[in-house]
Amino acid sequence: MPDDDQFERYLKQFRPVVAEPLPVASPRPVRFWLWSLAATAALALIIAAVLAVRFHRKPAGIVLTGRSPAVGQLASAQPLTLRRANDLLSQAPTFEAAMDGLVFQSEPIQLPPGSESALETLGKENLQP
Amino acid sequence: MQPADADRSTIERLYRQHGTRLVLFASTLIGERSRAQDMVHQVFLKLLERGSLGHATDAKAYLFTSVRNAVLNDARVRARDVPLDPESAWFNPPDRDYAAERSLRRAIGALSEEQREVLVLHVWGELTFFQIAQVLSVSANTAASRYRYALARLRDAMSAREETNA
After folding, report:
1. Nearest-by-Cβ selection for A7 from B19, B101, B151
2. For chain B, where are the alpha helices, taking DSSP H only?
3. Nearest CA-CA partner of A19 in B40, B124, B149
4. Calpha distance A117→A56 (Å, rounded)
């Protein structure tokens, strides 16, 4: 007949079945919040970049293939006059590139006094059939 | 000694430390392990909600008292006609002797509730008789006396079962 202590030791060999974890979400570690912050910032940057590309895209239908830097400079620096139009046509590698240069100037330009735009001059011409 | 106020991590740590013992204790009172587990969870969820152990000076004794009160306040358990669930094991037996585990469970179930409580609290809950006295609102001498009787009855029951099986 075992004594009480011995029997108690025997009983302690029976280990209670481990309890299930507490059904509650543990607070997130600091590292989780740092990663979340970084991921959110990266996502915001990507969205901003996509929006920027969309809003600054060139108008559809204008193909600027073969446009030389010289044409670009002429197109953006000076108002469009007959002389400039001639220059564009003579310097551009192709006719299409020259036309692109002309079309690209979509904003109204204040002409210096005494100058006249090419379109205005052409509009005044009396064309005989 | 634990501080009266406990933050979330302290309460979760207390669950990790004592959850298994508390579930066993509740199982021996209820007879059904899954319900015992639910009750212990409820006790801890309330503690987390409250964020404090009240005025408790002994966190371990406080937790066992809380679980006992939760069990005693449960309407379904009040009927005291709770059979032991034969399917859910309470223990991992030595040498995977599951027959001995069933035998132990039946022997514990056959004890009176008072003896069962003291036995489980002392052997597996690892509470002192002084702490058991706090949990059960009895004197430490009464707790020790109940324990000796419980141990003797359990030993007799298990010996008798072993002789029957042999």
Report:
1. B151
2. 8-30, 33-50, 59-73, 75-78, 98-110, 113-123, 129-136, 140-165
3. B40
4. 28
CB contact under 8 A, A17 and B24: yes
Q: What is the 3-state secondary structure (H, E, C) of A15-30?
A: EECCCCCCCCCCCCCH
Q: Which of A3, A4, A17 to mutate to test the interface with B (most CBs of B within 10 A)?
A: A17
What is the set of domains in chain B, with CATH numbers? 1-88 (no CATH), 95-166 (1.10.10.10)
Per CB-CB distance under 8 Å, the chain B contacts of A18 are 20
Q: Is A35 in the B-facing interface, judged by CB distances under 8 Å? A: no
Q: How far is residue B45's CA from residue B89's CA, in Å, rounded to a whole number?
A: 25
> Distance between CA A98 and CA A71 in Å, rounded?
7
Question: What is this structure's pTM?
Answer: 0.62
| Low-confidence winner among A69-73, A95-99, B64-68, B146-150 (lowest mean pLDDT) | A69-73
- Nearest CA to CA, how far is A6 from chain B (Å)? 11
Q: Do the beta carbons of residue B16 and residue B64 sit within 8 Å?
A: no
State how far the Cα of B158 lies from the Cα of B164, in Å rounded to an integer: 10
Write down the residue that tokens 């489980």 correspond to. B120
CB B52 within 8 A of CB B7: no
Q: State the Cα–Cα distance between residues B118 and B144, nearest whole angstrom.
A: 8
Q: Using CA atoms, how far apart are residues B20 and B22, in angstroms rounded to an integer? A: 5
* B44/A22 Cβ within 8 A: yes
Average pLDDT over residues B8-19: 92
How far is Cα B14 from Cα B147, in angstroms, rounded to an integer?
26
Give the C-alpha separation, B72 to B60, whole Å: 18
> B83: how many CB neighbours lie within 10 A of its CB?
8
Structure tokens, A125: 């011409």
